């Protein structure tokens, strides 16, 4: 890799973005990170302090201007910036559509103005809704809540910029990423953050339903490798599903973490199984998962102190936080 290759990573201080930054620096890129640092995420880049190949701009992506200096001379753009909690998206749909939709358009225009050679969009498998499994890229799109819709709008904008303006774009639909540096603040959300804080506190794991539901968990370094492959390929205008292709039951996760369990009501509109058909990405990018679920959970447990300041959830606080979910998702399922 030429040391003159320049990559812009929006959301580069976040969970997945920071791991992509690691990989790009290892591969000889000059990396420019754009992040608003909500939630104190600068810690995720602290190990790169003093690296002359890493540059940082603190900004909301909606405030970026075309011709911004951070994009000048850039060859590749990885777009991770956005807001990702599901329940708050039901309460704040305007903000989600603004950040994940219009914010993406702002980044696309900056990339187009800079003449970048590849733009990779971090899409979400939530666009499929309650999907048939294993889920292929041509599955019908049925977003169930504003977060899913906003991420799909961002993807459609990226592909539109490919079709109309010739911007070389690929989109990667992430299923269930997990690993070190996942979010420690904010709303009730991702299962790992909830469980790890509960384990630190010696509290029972709050398992939704009966725990037999399974998720296509993929370790974050495998996610990062797929995104870099999607950016370095000559292929453009493609959409790829990204998962391990090997769903794991939530009950297996709590067994690996070790601890007591309390079961809470199953939420309407949530799938029993997420399962990515990864035929296309393995074929097109010669990519495959490297980290087993057991190995990934073990690595997280070695660094569990990272989640010590995360919110501590219990059945009562979860019920309160997810009231709006039951209110609207029950209606959306036709059960209310």
TrEMBL record:
Transmembrane segments: none annotated. InterPro entries: Epimerase_deHydtase (IPR001509), NAD(P)-bd_dom_sf (IPR036291). It holds the Pfam family Epimerase. Pathway: Bacterial outer membrane biogenesis; LPS O-antigen biosynthesis. Residues 8-243 form the NAD-dependent epimerase/dehydratase domain. PANTHER family: DTDP-D-GLUCOSE 4,6-DEHYDRATASE-RELATED (PTHR43000). Belongs to the NAD(P)-dependent epimerase/dehydratase family. This is NAD-dependent dehydratase. It comes from Tardiphaga robiniae.
